[in-house]
Design brief:
Strand order of the largest sheet: 1-3-2-4-5
Structural class: alpha/beta
Strand content: 5-15%
Bound molecules: iron/sulfur cluster
Distance between the termini: 89 Å
Largest sheet: 5 strands, mixed
Number of strands: 9
Radius of gyration: 23 Å
Helix content: 55-70%
Shape: globular
Length: 458
C-alpha cells in the first residue's frame, strides 16, 4: 500500500465513517466475551470488536495510518455481529465494519485474476437468477450423470484443498433447470387467508436449496397464508455489501424494493437468516438517498423470518409428531443478532412430540461459515467449526437444525469432517417441520385406515 493510497483511505474514512457511532464506543469491553475471533486468537485485542473500532477511530482521527495489517484484521472479522447485543452503548458495529471494508476495497488495486473473479461473481452471476439456475443445474447434471461417482472413485477431488473437497461431498442434490424455472408466482389459500405474505426466495435458496423453498411455501399455505412470489426480485446483496461492493448492494436493494412494492403483502418472509438480516438493513443502506429512504423503511418494516410468522400464526400449537430423536439448534448469527429472532425456532422444535430438544453450549456463537469466510479464510473458519462440533457432540444430538443455507452447509461439513455422517444429520428448520407434518399425516392416515377396517368388519 503506497503513501498515496494510505492518504486516500484516511480521507475516505474521515468523510464516510459515522463518527458518532465510533465515539459511542466507551471501550468497556463488555463485547469481548461474545466475540469468537477474540477468543479464537487467544485474546488478541486487534481481533476484538473494541480493538477493531479503536483502529477505525484511530484512522479517522489521523492517529493511525491505514495499512494491510488493519485491512486483514477487518477482513478476519466474521461479521457475525454477536458483539452488538452485548454492547450496553448500542454501538452498531456491523454498519461500521461494512463501511470500513468498503473503503479499503474501493481503494484496493486488485490483481487481474481477482478482478475477473469479482466481476464474474458480483456482477455476472449473483444478480442474474437465470445464470444462477444455469450454474446450479450444471451441478445437478454432474450429480445425476454419474460423473460425481467417477470423480470420487478416482480421487480427483484430492487435487483440491481439503475443505473444498469435503464441501463437494455435502452439497445437496440439485433439481433440473426446468424444475427451477416452472413455478407459480402466486399461491392462493382455499379458505379466507389469515395473512397475505410475499416470499423472498433468495438466490442460493431458490437454486441449490429449492426444495426447502417449496417446503416453506407449503408451510405458509398450511398456516393459512396467501403467498406472492414477485418474479422481478433479485439477490439480496448481502454478499456484495459484506465484500466491499456497497454500490452494487444498493442497486440490488432498489430492485427488490420495487419488486415487492408491486404486491400488497402484510409481511415479506425469508427463510435464510443472512439474507433476511441484509433486507432488514435496507433502511440503513439507503438512508441518505432521498428518493429511496422512506421506501426502504416501509420494506424493512415488513421483513419476518419464517419461524416468526409460523409462531405468530400459532403453528406451534398444531399437534405434530416425529420418531424419537435428540435435536439441537445452531443459531444463524444474523437471524439472532440482527433480526432478534431466536425464541421462535426453539418454540417450534420443542412443540413436536418425539423431539428431545437439547440446547447446545454457545449455540449463539458463529459456526465459521460467515458468508464466504469459510472459502476465503478456510483455516480460521475450520477452527471455529471444530469448536462448534465439540459443543454439538456434547448434546448427543442426531439432528442439528439451522435457519440459514451457509450455516446448513457448514454444519454438514462439520459432520463430514468428524466422520459422523452415519449418526448425525444437519437440516433446515423448515425441513424438520415438514417432516413432522408428513409423519403426523401418515400416522393419522394409518390410524384412520385401521379404524375404518375395524368399523367395516364389525
Ligand atoms: S462481528 Fe463477530 S467476529 Fe466481528 S468483532 Fe463482532 S463478535 Fe467479533
Ligand atoms: S461493548 Fe460496546 S461500548 Fe463496550 S467496548 Fe464493546 S463496542 Fe465499545
Amino acid at each position: 500500500m503506497n503513501a498515496f493510497v494510505k492518504e486516500k483511505i484516511q480521507k475516505d474514512f474521515q468523510e464516510r465513517m459515522d463518527r458518532d457511532e465510533l465515539e459511542n464506543c466507551m471501550r468497556c469491553g463488555f463485547c469481548l466475551p461474545a466475540c469468537p475471533t477474540y477468543i479464537q486468537s487467544g485474546y488478541d485485542e486487534t481481533q476484538s470488536p473494541r480493538g477493531r473500532i479503536a483502529l477505525m477511530k484511530g484512522i479517522v482521527d489521523g492517529e493511525i495510518e491505514p495499512d494491510e495489517d488493519i485491512e486483514q484484521t477487518l477482513n478476519e472479522c466474521l461479521g457475525c455481529r454477536a458483539c452488538e447485543p452485548a454492547c450496553p452503548a448500542g454501538v452498531n458495529y456491523g454498519h461500521l465494519l461494512e463501511e470500513a471494508r468498503d473503503i479499503f476495497n474501493q481503494n484496493k488495486k486488485h490483481s487481474l485474476p481477482e478482478r475477473v473473479i469479482r466481476k464474474t461473481v458480483f456482477d455476472g452471476l449473483f444478480p442474474h437468477q437465470s445464470r444462477m439456475q444455469n450454474m446450479t443445474s450444471l451441478l445437478g447434471m454432474y450429480q445425476r450423470s454419474g460423473l460425481q461417482k467417477v470423480t470420487r472413485k478416482i480421487g480427483f477431488m484430492k487435487l483440491f484443498p481439503e475443505t473444498m473437497a469435503t464441501m463437494e461431498r455435502v452439497l445437496p442434490d440439485v433439481q433440473t433447470r426446468k424444475e427451477m424455472r416452472e413455478r407459480p408466482t402466486y399461491y392462493e389459500n382455499e379458505k379466507a387467508p389469515k395473512a397475505t405474505v410475499a416470499f423472498f426466495k433468495g438466490c442460493l435458496m431458490d437454486t441449490m436449496f429449492m426444495d426447502i423453498n417449496q417446503m416453506t411455501i407449503d408451510l405458509l399455505q398450511k398456516v393459512g397464508c396467501d403467498i406472492a412470489v414477485p418474479d422481478t426480485q433479485n439477490c439480496c446483496g448481502a454478499l456484495h455489501g459484506h465484500s466491499g461492493e456497497k454500490e452494487k448492494a444498493k442497486e440490488l436493494a432498489k430492485e427488490n424494493i420495487k419488486a415487492f412494492e408491486k404486491v400488497s403483502a402484510d409481511f415479506i418472509i425469508t427463510n435464510a437468516g443472512g439474507c433476511g438480516a441484509f433486507l432488514y438493513d435496507y433502511d440503513h443502506l439507503l438512508k441518505e438517498d432521498s428518493e429511496w429512504a422512506e421506501r426502504a423503511k416501509n420494506f424493512t418494516a415488513k421483513i419476518k423470518d419464517i419461524t416468526a410468522i409460523l409462531v405468530e400464526l400459532d403453528f406451534h400449537n398444531t399437534p405434530l409428531q416425529l420418531p424419537e430423536q435428540v435435536v439441537t439448534y445452531q443459531d444463524s448469527c444474523h437471524l439472532r443478532n440482527v433480526q432478534k429472532t431466536f425464541e421462535e425456532p426453539r418454540t417450534l422444535m420443542r412443540s413436536i412430540e418425539g423431539v428431545q430438544y437439547e440446547e447446545m453450549n454457545q449455540a449463539d456463537r458463529c459456526c465459521g461459515s460467515a458468508g464466504i469466510y469459510n472459502i476465503v479464510h478456510s483455516e480460521l473458519s475450520m477452527k471455529h467449526l471444530d469448536y462448534k462440533m465439540e459443543q454439538v457432540k456434547d448434546t448427543a444430538a442426531t439432528t442439528i437444525v439451522t435457519t440459514n443455507p451457509g450455516c446448513l452447509l457448514q454444519m454438514k461439513l462439520g459432520i463430514e469432517r468428524e466422520g459422523l455422517s452415519d449418526k448425525m444429520r444437519a437440516i433446515h428448520i423448515v425441513e424438520l417441520l415438514s417432516e413432522a407434518v408428513n409423519y403426523s399425516e401418515e400416522k393419522a392416515g394409518a390410524y384412520m385406515a385401521t379404524h375404518e377396517k375395524v368399523r367395516y368388519s364389525i
